[in-house]
Structures are given as structure tokens and as C-alpha cells.
Amino acid sequence: MSQGAVNGRSKTPSRPTRDDVIDLAHDWFRDGRRVDVQALSRELGIGRATIYRWFSGREVIIGEVVWRIVAEALRRVEDREGYPATIEQFVHNYGEMAAAVRSYHPLSQFVSDDPEYALRVLSTRYSVVQGRLIEWNMVRLNTFPEIGPKVDIRALAYAIVRVGESFIWSDMITGEPPAPEQATAMVALLLAGACSTPA
Questions:
Q1: pLDDT tens for residues 169-185?
Q2: Number of Cβ within a 10 Å radius of residue 69
Q3: What is the dihedral of CA 193, 194, 197, 199, to 10 degrees?
């Protein structure tokens, strides 16, 4: 019996999945190649309608790719520095993540090539990246009992993300050089205020 048959039935190649689209888009993004829905459709052998049903558009696909890059940076930092057991460690890890993301060449190139589009992908309220960063921050902030009980954790996480965006991506927002160290300092001030909030 041939290797292509099992119990008398021929094996058929599995159809590409949603994850396959992101995997391929991630490879192209990393290599500096334009991520285009039509090209992804052609390469994977699936219809564009299927890709749009999964993601709704190119912006969402790139958002998923960027989130993968950010999530990998976060994971590397926490593997190296440890899960933040204190607010000071949280701020330190945040700074390490900010510097790592900002120095990742394919992402910096994406921002440089089309700042307005990159800004939509990275920092609008509908952004995959922004939404997941808020959730990531909330999970960690909820472990710190010293944050005042009247503090809205979601609002604090949102503020941390927005402050971070303002400095990490300042070149495409204000034209100023990126300053992840300033983002870290501002996050520390926000958390100091949250910890001093009276009951």
C-alpha cells in the first residue's frame, strides 16, 4: 500500500487555516515583503472571500502579525526577567519590551514606509494590537494589591497603553524620535499615582 493511502482511502492535503494565513503573513512581514490579501490567497490556494471572512481586511491581518511580534517580545522578556511580582518589576519589564519592539527592524521599517497606515494598525481603538495589550496589562495589574481599590484597572491599563504608544511611536505621531525610556518613566508615574489613590 502506498504511503498516500490509509485504510484504502487516499490522504488529501489539509486545507489552509486561519493560522496559516497569519504564519505566511508573518514570514512576509519579517522579510520586508508587502502583505497583500490577493497574494496570500494565491500562495495558499484559497479564495480572497475566505480570507476576508476570517479577518475582514488586510489591516486586521497585519495587526495579528504585529501582535505576534509584540507577544513574542513580551514572552522573551518575562522568560528572562521573570513574571512581574512587583510593580517595580512590571515597569522594568515594560521598558524592556518597549525597547525590544521599537528596535525590531521589520516593524520599524513598516512604520517608516507608511506612518499613517501603521498608526491605524498599531494604535486605534479598533486595533488588534491595542486591544490585546490592554488585556495583557490588565492581567498583570490585577495581581498588585497596592493599587487603590477605587482605581479602574481597565482604565489604568488603557492609559498605560496610550502613554506607551505616544512615546514608542512618537516618530509617526509627532515627528519626534521614539523614546521608549520616556514611555517607561511615564508608566512608572501612572502606577505611582494608582498606588497612592485613597480607599
A1: 988 888 888 899 999 99
A2: 19
A3: -170
Euclidean distance between CA atoms 139 and 122, whole angstroms: 20
Spatial distance between the Cα atoms of 149 and 116, rounded to a whole number of angstroms: 38
Question: Other C-beta atoms within 10 Å of 93: how many?
Answer: 20
- What would the pLDDT profile of 98-136 be if each residue is shown by its tens digit? 999 988 999 989 988 888 888 889 887 778 999 999 999
CA distance 70 to 49: 28
- Position 127 scores a pLDDT of 80
The answer, yes or no, to whether residue 40 has pLDDT greater than 60, is yes
Say whether pTM exceeds 0.70: yes
CB 99 within 8 A of CB 162: no
d(C-alpha 17, C-alpha 46), whole Å: 9
Burial class (CB in 10 A: 0-12, 13-18, 19+), 51: buried
User: Hey, what's the cell of 14?
Assistant: 489539509
**How far apart are the C-alpha atoms of 183 and 130, rounded to whole Å?**
15
Q: Which residues pair with 9 in a beta bridge?
A: 6
